[in-house]
Amino acid sequence: MSKQHEEYYKPLITECLLPELFPAVNLYMKGRGGNYILYKTAEFVLSQADLERLVRNDTKYLYVRTGDVGSVTAYLESHLTEFLNSNDLSTHAKSVILQQTSIEYVHEILGPGQASAEYDLDRCKSLLKNLMDYAVSADSLLDLLKAISSGSLYILAHSVQVAILSMLVHDKLYQIDADEMLSVGTGGLFHDIGMTFLSRDLLDHPDALSDIAYKTIQLHPSMGHEFLEKTGQFDEIVLTIVKHHHERWDGSGYPGRLEGNNITRSAQVAALCDIYCALTNKRTYRKASTHDEAIEILASDVERNFNPEMFEDFKSIVGGEPAKETEEAKTVREEDDEQCPNAENILLSTKRTKAGRAET
Description:
By secondary structure, this protein is mainly alpha-helical. It is about 55% helix and about 5% strand. The strands form 2 sheets. Strands 1-4 form a two-stranded antiparallel ribbon. A two-stranded antiparallel ribbon has the order 2-3.
């Protein structure tokens, strides 16, 4: 099975299938040889007996064609609160459903050619509320962030992670109302929208960036801010996060070289969450850092990059231990590690890397 053929199908966790309510789309099973076999046609209504049979056969996933993803995503979003509050769904199923709905939404706003003059912010707010409610109740924040990144394009997963973590930090540390919380989350989702105007080759370039390329990367906060401001849909909190999430505590950041508390609190939080989430995700040019490695890297230059007091509070929030790593997950991680250079060596090698590459 070629990689190209794989991309024609998207997995759908069986636990989220609601009989009589699931949309009329073809469903497929994945055979032992990697081929996709038609399970039911769009005309066949999924019944409770079908679902029970899938459970008995331990069928954890079915698959849909990419052309049907929009219908399935609309179904998942319309029932998302119900899924997340259900006592019948496993924690894993809830994380997968949340991952699929959030990633698909962010793909619509950050995917190639998706920049729009108008966004459905009611849909955005509904998704953010579900993300926030689930993040607060999740047994392990680190497991949730890892689930979000599973099998997704980096910029999509990263944007969702920054939104979740930014909202959680504000929830734990600051007394803000619901509207401001939604603005913080929206800023997290859209913080890298300026990246969509840059070349993909530039973003995934495996080698050190030239001076010209690095300067080009630094344009993305201003480009994103200018684009969103022109839509007239976003408040000042969102726009500030987008424009200033690369500012640094000592004034060495960009684009405004703002210093200390001249950087708004929401932008300071976004900057911290941005780098942490970037470090803990694998990129083409480095392996993912563990939680402990990421905290150590951040702490090595905290006086320059962050409000030291905020950083200490941040550590206490993300300090929970993830669930024990399975042998399968350990094998996958070790294989990745063999193919990717060590993140710490890259991120600490030059001032430029710490200030720029680690945060994109």
